[in-house]
Amino acid sequence: MDFKIDQNSPVPLHAQIEGYLRSLIVQEKYRSGKCFLPKEVTLAKKLGVSRNTVRQAVNTLVQEQLIERKKGVGTKVLNKKIATRLDNWISFTKEMGKLGIEVVNYVVKASLEIAPDEVYDALSVSSSKKIWKLEKVRGSNKAKYLYSVSYFHPRVGITGEEDFITPLYELLETEHDTIVATSKERLSAVKADQNLVSILDLAPEVPILRRERLVCDPGDRPVEFNIVFYNTDYFTYDIEIKRDL
């Protein structure tokens, strides 16, 4: 431990320790949650301060939800998961922006393909037609959060020349005069197959969240059939149900 308390500093002792702890929690071994932070009693002894002073610094980070303390276990960096809601229909980029996370597009690929039968059924399109498929792997500079696959009804007029970095529904409206109005969704938990393990850098057969949705225009005509696989190390889904009174 290189850090030492400066007894002559105008900065309070607990604030100095707080600063030290902040420098620790950004280190990979702590940030990943693989290692516990030093115990309060250990820090107090090595720094020559009371345990209460150390605890005051720790409490500040706990209150900021940067670390979590479990009695009899230890203190670790809190792995914050991104909570998204079923009733919250905004673009992924905007949703991450609200959380202060800069989106990284690991893969953005459009191709004209024969799709699985469930896609043709959902879009009410003849299975003899190739349709446009858009794949995206997105996340932050630290991890891949999701793998999204979209299939579009031929009526939309996708050409493959679009800038798919643009928020999708803005693009559909401005370039293809297609307004989306409803999203019919289904959630399920699945085991990651080898393809998803490779795409999202997951452990084999780890449980992940599968979100399937059919997006329709104001006339209830299918526009997009979308399947998203979420890395549950980083994502949760919040559902709020209100009782009719």
From TrEMBL:
| Matches recorded under InterPro entries | Bact_HTH_transcr_reg (IPR050679), Chorismate_lyase_/UTRA_dom_sf (IPR028978), Tscrpt_reg_HTH_GntR (IPR000524), UTRA (IPR011663), WH-like_DNA-bd_sf (IPR036388), WH_DNA-bd_sf (IPR036390)
Which terms does the record give in the GO molecular function aspect?
DNA binding; DNA-binding transcription factor activity
Entry keyword Transcription: yes
UniProt-listed Gene3D superfamilies: Chorismate lyase-like, Winged helix-like DNA-binding domain superfamily/Winged helix DNA-binding domain
Which keywords annotate this record?
DNA-binding, Transcription, Transcription regulation
Q: Which domain of life is it from?
A: Bacteria
Q: Residues in domain HTH gntR-type?
A: 11-80
Does the keyword section mention Transcription regulation? yes
Pfam assignment, any one: UTRA
Q: Which GO terms describe its biological process?
A: negative regulation of DNA-templated transcription
Q: Which SUPFAM superfamilies does this chain map to?
A: Chorismate lyase-like, Winged helix' DNA-binding domain
PROSITE patterns recorded for this chain?
HTH_GNTR
What PANTHER family does the annotation carry?
A: MANNOSYL-D-GLYCERATE TRANSPORT/METABOLISM SYSTEM REPRESSOR MNGR-RELATED, MANNOSYL-D-GLYCERATE TRANSPORT_METABOLISM SYSTEM REPRESSOR MNGR-RELATED
The protein here is known as GntR family transcriptional regulator
Q: What is the lineage of its organism?
A: Bacteria, Pseudomonadati, Bacteroidota, Flavobacteriia, Flavobacteriales
